[in-house]
From TrEMBL:
UniProt keyword terms in alphabetical order: ATP-binding, Kinase, Nucleotide-binding, Serine/threonine-protein kinase, Transferase
Organism: Diutina rugosa (Yeast)
Record's compositionally biased regions (Low complexity): 118-137, 163-172
PROSITE patterns: PROTEIN_KINASE_ATP, PROTEIN_KINASE_DOM, PROTEIN_KINASE_ST
Gene Ontology MF terms: ATP binding; protein serine/threonine kinase activity; protein serine/threonine/tyrosine kinase activity
GO cellular component: cytoplasm; nucleus
Protein name, as recorded: Protein kinase domain-containing protein
Biased composition, class Polar residues, residue ranges: 193-204
Superkingdom per UniProt: Eukaryota
Segments forming a coiled coil: none
Amino acid sequence: MKDENFIRKADYAMLEQRYGLCKYYPCYVHNPSISTPVLKDLIIDKPLYADANRRKKKRQELARERQMMEKLEMIKIEERQRDRDRQRALQKQEHPQGLEFRNPFGDGKLQVMSENPATDGSAESASSSHPRSSSVFSKRHHSIASRFISFVRGPSDGDEVTPPSSSGSPSGLEITESGNGPTLPLLRRSKSFDQTKSAQTSSRMKGVFKKKLGKIVDWPRLILACCFNTNMFKPEVVSEQVTNGHTGATEHIQYTKSQMVGHGSFGVVFQTQIMPSNQVCAMKRVLQDKRYKNRELQIMKLVHHRNITDLKYYFYTQNEKNEVFLNLILEFVPETLYKASHYYVSKRLYMPPLEIKLYTYQMLRALNYIHSQGICHRDIKPQNLLINPDTGELKLCDFGSAKILNPLEPNVAYICSRYYRAPELIFGATNYTTKIDVWSAGCVMAELLLGQPLFPGESSIDQLVEIMRILGSPSKEQIKHMNSGYSDNKFPQVKPTPMSKIFKKASPDTLSFLSRMLQYSPIERVSCIEAMVDPYFDELRNPNTKLPNYRKIFAQQSHSSSASYQTYAAQPDLKELPQLFDFDDRELSVLPQVNSRLVPEWAMDQLQLARAVRSLDDFVPWTKDQLAVTLD
């Protein structure tokens, strides 16, 4: 609704003229010359993809079977529901009288009247004096409380009936409290109280109808009391013995486990608070599967960088099935780059060029740091790039697929999310390098520019087709660079599509830089440190560059009076860029000959070096042995 309000009221012409924000139109290029199935057929028959095709068909069959089982289960559930409805209808015909309940909070009586409203108007007056909005019960409490109601049958012949009070009772639920205790407000439903629905909740609690009115079934006092106890909904405080992610020392901490903020095949992520400092963190819980190597903890203990999520603590837990879980307590970053990109698209805007430049630079800086250690992330995608929209800072996360690459050791080719998978992986290479992360980074940057994935393949084969649509057919030499063992290269000759036709709003410098990352050949593909000194990032090296507060601008455009607008209204219109040039010895030792272009003169005092230097000429780079790292 907020996005629709913005689209309806925003002045797009002003946004483009003043801030350079272009209106978003999906502009993915469809190349009709290769849209026929011919290209896919040529690729799909290759022995290289036979196993992948079989696995895909098997997954599709399993998915269809699963959907069929779910449909059958839904039919069974609906049939059981119809049976219960028929039983409740029969019970309603047999027992049309009112139902009474015992109030666990005192001597007062919780009473349900019959469906026929009072004729003397007393019920109407009681209902008007206690509107539904005045109840202290939230909808959540109301629904929880209704599950624990126990029922008694209406009076049979010979039973004594206590008539309602002279003031009348509302034809809903009413709670009154006698004695010296506080008076509870009415808990009431609508006048057409549905006894059949309440009977259903009663059956779940195994409530039974009594033949005598005097024998009233007690409620489970403890459970119902929890419904009105606010402490019940407070996060649980857990005490745990953990290991410090920096020092390796054993410590005792207390943390609260609150809502889940992420999940996937790796496990789940919770938002937590470290007590008593109330520091907000993220706790990632991963099952330790013996069938797979999990290097995440070992690698997380090696990488400590501004643009990488920091490992604070870790510990192991075990469940009742004796399954071991690794728990990583990481710094909490509120948003993903995927969500930030969708934020602009939902407002029919392209992401501002300065933000794309800022996030791409920090992504490359994080990759340059881990590549200097020989670590390949192998799963770069917008969902694994966390950002703080208030500061513009980006952090790389999720090292579950990361590995220290050894040239003498083969690696698995089926790795990385499909849209961001490098072509050498599609060609089945097992001796790839860290350049596969550079390709993924180029795909991420292209997605920020385009507002949607650049290569949205539906399978590994289709992924190669999507790449060839844009970059054209690879040459024999490029295929040899991607996988020297791949001999069958009878691909149809497809001409590349000019980047300017795809990224119509991008500048020539942007397209030139992007094309350096999206190269078939890993040898021709630019490295992270070379990409960081590209003229494309000169704007970030300008000391006068400020980051406009785009979200405040958008809030003003939609003329919002919400609390979020008030939050942005207090923020400045221009923000300082995050720290981009506080390089350490490792980062400056990767390619020392480009350090003069990497570090602007005004940022020399920001360097985090072991030995202070007056100029970069005095810096002594590390040797290869010093740069190399090994796992424990």
